[in-house]
Amino acid sequence: MGKLKIGVLGSTAGTDMQAVIDEIEKGALDAEISVVICNKPDAFILERAKKHGLKAVCIPSKSREREDFDREVASILEENGVQLILLIGYMRFLSKWFVDRYENRIMNIHPSLLPAFAGGMDLDVHQAILDHGAKVTGATLHFVDEGADTGPIILQKAVDIAGDETKETLKPKVQKAEQEIILRAIRLFADGKLKVEGRKVKILG
User: Fold this and answer.
1) What would the pLDDT profile of 82-134 be if each residue is shown by its tens digit?
2) Please, what is the angle between helix 122-131 and helix 167-190, to 10°?
3) Residue by residue, what is the 3-state secondary structure of 84-144?
4) Domains in the chain, ordered, with CATH?
5) 105 with 83: CB under 8 angstroms?
6) Element (H or E) spanning 200, and its range?
């Protein structure tokens, strides 16, 4: 089917997107990022995209009705032939309309081993994990449904927590795990090796 066309939705720095860009630029991933859509005008993900010559679109979301906003996002994804949507630090819940339209084509990365510590964002998640006294954390990539981090899990990777860990030291360790599973999942998706059966995602072959 040629190169897999990816659309990225983000609200923050897009650190995990950089790993995808790097892999594509060195010829190790047969895909392209067709468009990056951001809802925060000052988010670094826009600069990151432009630096690498990627199409970047900002759609401010403040005071926008959810489905109305998502329909505008969808029109841009369609214009750019997007086949797979990656949510990378995207701080919005998706409408039922959008989730249904792109069923099993939207992947979200979360900085914990779901279903533990679902629903939070970024450093807040890492702090909650440390406050709980957990010895192991990790990253989860899942298909998106209408809930908060509740969709079928595609891949997970564990990360050990050191005795003197802080949320600032834990974040880059977990991000490394995030990037590894995102890249693996993109390849599996492109090869047609992900099959969703209810709550389970089977990896074929």
Assistant:
1) 999 999 999 999 999 999 999 999 999 999 999 999 988 889 999 999 999 99
2) 120
3) EEEEECCCCCCCHHHHHHCCCCEEEEECCCCCCCCCCCHHHHHHHHHHCCCCEEEEEEEEC
4) 1-102 (3.40.50.170), 110-205 (3.40.50.170)
5) yes
6) strand 200-203
Do 182 and 109 touch, CB atoms closer than 8 A? Answer: yes
* pTM for the model: 0.96
- Altogether, the residues listed in the chain come to a count of 205
Taking only the tens place, the pLDDT of each residue in 138-194 is 999 999 998 889 999 999 999 999 999 999 999 999 999 999 999 999 999 999 999
> Left, alpha or beta for 194 (phi > 0: left; psi -120 to 50: alpha)?
beta
Q: Which residues are catalytic?
A: 110
